[in-house]
Amino acid sequence: MASASLLRRIVVFDLGGVLIRWDPRFLYRKLFPGDDAAMETFLATVCTEEWNERQDAGRSFADAVAELLPRHPEKTHLIESFGRRFDEMIPGAIEGTVEILSDLKRVGVPLYAITNWSAETFPSQRERFPFLALFDGIVVSGEEGVIKPDPRIFGILFQRYGIKAEQAIFIDDDPRNATAATALGIHGIHYRSPVLLRSELEALGLC
Hints:
single chain, 13% strand, 45% helix, 11 helices, five-stranded parallel β-sheet, 7 strands, Rossmann fold, alpha/beta, two-stranded antiparallel sheet, disordered N terminus
């Protein structure tokens, strides 16, 4: 009898932290030269992870900046730079994972992505990273108004592309998102490195 794992022939990737390197510190180290402590304070208290997630959920950067400026008028340039210089937070691709993606495509595995990403800053990534064209479909949270780990964003993928949870493997560097996928009947993988990912996919008969 075939292993149940072999029925899972669709692979769904997260993008940031799995295929694309992203961290606001790549930009803000330029804006806080030689003062990492001040940079970390700014990212923890002004342009926070929670603040950025609201852009991933569909809020515009104009509205996001407007929320912060009255409270931090002396930091106008720093706040506005988050959206205006977003691409500088992305130094490049995670090449080992891109190789895995290409290998899966080569053997005919259907490939999809679900990404927590602003609708304003994602289009330039399509131009910058040609491997994004390998996907059969990409669900961008900022376009949908809902972010992982909310089950609704997985539902959008299922309905739009005719995917069933029991067919799919989902890879994400945030364990909360992998756990949310598993709760829906998807095989969730917490991504830690290309080497470990390849090993896990090999165990599932996919690499």
